[in-house]
UniProtKB/TrEMBL annotation:
Protein name: PIG-L family deacetylase
Keywords, in A-Z order: Zinc
Pfam families (UniProt xref): PIG-L
InterPro entries with a match to the protein in the record: GlcNAc_PI_deacetylase-related (IPR003737), LmbE-like_dom_sf (IPR024078)
Length: 247
């Protein structure tokens, strides 16, 4: 059976959709689902990862149960369905193709929009992008948007300005994923959302659902939840068709 969704947001981890596109998803057609690609449980008996230990968890199983529940609350605020693929989070998983992603994308129709993470300085996100774009490279595929994953891309000095894309094209610190993307897929800005106070309050509520992640994220990314911080704007590009031979 063809899934009923009009919009599919690929969120590598449980918090990425809220951090990156909480305001944008409110503009997109429903029904909408947030697909957590690394949404599977860790193998039984796995020792707690360094990240989950830093978040305060005593075991891998406890971390998974808590993060899945946090994500359910965030999805409810985003008016989105929660969909989980069976891949364990990075420290608990394996290399190779991500399970379930290709089959899910193959079942979508051309009137669906798929949001794919850019993968700025984040290997798990980049892995999702590579596999998703390969699966969507067919004439009847769903429409694809690539979104700037936050807070990573939001550290660009020109973030939340008209020059953000051009700055990514030149930045050797924050723009390598964008540069790789545009070498293979010409892009145009499809959505540039600079959050007003109402949008910011709604986004903050969704982000705060992922409370277990905020302390270590702030340690790595500074003023994560500040009104003027890296989450204050959201950006997504559409992939332009390349001209055919002789065009």
């Amino acid at each position: 059976m063809t899934p009923p969704w009009r919009t599919v947001v690929l969120s590598p981890h449980f918090d990425d959709a809220a951090l990156s596109v909480a305001a944008l998803v409110r503009r997109l057609p429903r029904p909408l689902t947030v697909v957590t690609v690394f949404g599977g449980p860790p193998p039984e008996g796995s020792p707690v990862s360094w990240w989950d230990a830093t978040c305060g968890f005593s075991s891998a199983a406890e971390a998974y149960a808590c993060r899945r529940a946090e994500d359910a609350r965030a999805c409810a605020l985003l008016e989105a369905e929660q969909t989980l693929l069976p891949n364990p989070d990075g420290p608990y998983g394996a290399t190779g193709p991500l399970r379930g992603l290709g089959a899910l994308l193959a079942g979508l129709t051309a009137d669906t929009t798929v949001l794919v993470p850019l993968g700025t300085n984040q290997p798990d996100h980049e892995r999702v992008r590579h596999q998703a774009l390969a699966a969507l490279d067919r004439p009847d595929a769903a429409r694809t948007l690539v979104y700037a994953d936050l807070p990573y891309t939001g550290h660009l000095p020109e973030w939340a300005t008209d020059g953000a894309s051009d700055a990514l094209a030149a930045s050797q610190k924050w723009g390598l994923a964008y540069q790789e993307l545009t070498r293979h897929h010409p892009c145009s800005v499809a959505h540039d959302v600079r959050l007003d106070d109402e949008q910011w309050a709604a986004k903050r509520a969704a982000v705060l659902c992922h409370a277990s992640q905020l302390a270590p994220l702030a340690a790595d990314h500074g003023s994560l939840a500040a009104r003027s911080g890296p989450l204050r704007a959201e950006l997504a590009w559409t992939l332009d068709a390349r001209p055919g031979p002789g065009a």
